Amino acid sequence: MPSAGLWLEVGKSQPRLFFYATVDVIRASRIALYLSAALLAAGTALAVYGRYDLHPHLMALGLLSFYYSVMYIQLPGFINAAPARPVTWALLALFAVAIAATPYVGYVAFAGFSALYAVLYLKGVWGRAAYYPNWVAAAGLVALPLSSSHIEAVYSFPLASVYALMYRIDSSRAKRRFTAAKAGALVVGYAVAFAATKAGYLWSPIIPSLILTAAAPPVLKDAYSAGSLLFRFVLPLAFFHHHAAYMSFAVVMSTLCVPYFVPSVLYRRLPNYGPALLALSLAAFAFRILGQIAAAGAALCLLFHLPPPYQAPHHCYVRH
After folding, report:
1. 94: helix, coil or strand?
2. DSSP code at position 162
3. Arithmetic mean of pLDDT, 51-61
4. Based on CB atoms within 10 Å of each CB, which residue in 18, 41, 157, 176 is the most buried?
């Protein structure tokens, strides 16, 4: 268990200190989100101009920065505590250093970032059912510095984050409880898939996808559920075309992170995008697989810059 100096517990900390610690979580998440937008835009532009040497590197770093943002802003809810202010900024500094060092030493540069982030998750690993999905995200952090290629990096913390979020949301929607057995099975399936990816078997995410679907079947009723189901079974098509993996993230990001978590970083109200985001992500997926890079980039720009049509506030029920 980490030192109490690393975090401020919900309901047990001085309110003012907890408030400012939470504000710093939001600020750091916002910086990571802006960094992600810059990296993804630069990576897409380089592909349009034929610079394929740097393109996959920037896209992988963009995804890492994106999931750092959307997972970190939720961390207080995941571990029932806010990271202390110095810890938040130390983590962001380690992330920035890792991005700068990756071209020279590879993804092992993220070892410090992953270690500190994983230690923060130790506050919420046992004692209540809502902590069990944290195991999956923590497994992705362990895998990150072990990555030796860009697609392995994408299959580390970003992929584990998506599985952890879908386990939370789809379990709640299906009115199923989180259990240690199901979370443990998902972690094992994810670990096997990551090891298989290192051996060149890019179809391997089908293993945790099947485990997740058995543990938390999607309730097909809206754009999110469609994106969730597509992500699970389109991602393994990476053995056919590696961009099937990268662009699968656009699909799930369009129906989960962009409408629900990105506004929590940038705005204060819940938007109602309707089917537009899913349609744009599917268009970008198809264009990229067909080699129409400029068209795919245009669809992605629209996807991440579509103004949010706000609606009256309503509740999104996810079990905590």
Report:
1. helix
2. H
3. 82
4. 157
Mean pLDDT across the chain: 84
Look up residue 312 and give its amino acid: A
Of 198, 89, 72, 87, the closest CA to residue 145 belongs to: 198
Q: How far apart are CA 180 and CA 128, in angstroms?
A: 10
pTM (predicted TM-score): 0.84
Residue 303: other Cβ atoms inside 10 A: 21
Answer whether 85's CB lies under 8 Å from 20's CB. Answer: yes
Q: Which of 138, 137, 68, 150 is nearest to 102 (CA)?
A: 150
Instruction: Tell me if residue 268 falls in helix, strand or coil.
Output: coil
- Structure-token match 């992705």, residue found: 140
pLDDT digits 0-9 by tens, 281-305: 777 777 777 667 677 777 766 665 5
Report the C-alpha gap between 257 and 165 in whole angstroms: 10
The torsion of the CA quartet 30, 32, 38, 43, rounded to 10 degrees, works out to -150
Question: Looking at the DSSP assignment, which residues form a beta bridge with residue 235?
Answer: none
Sign (positive/negative) of CA torsion 112, 117, 123, 125?
Answer: negative
Run of H or E residues at 82:
strand 81-83
Beta bridge partners of 7: 83
Distance of CA 101 to the CA centre of its chain: 22
Distance between CA 184 and CA 294 in Å, rounded? Answer: 42
| Distance of alpha carbon 225 from alpha carbon 49, whole angstroms | 35
Which residue type does 32 have? Answer: A
**Averaged pLDDT for residues 136-150:** 96
CA separation for the pair 90, 202 (Å, rounded): 34
Q: Give the residue from 216, 222, 197 showing the smallest Cα distance to 273.
A: 222
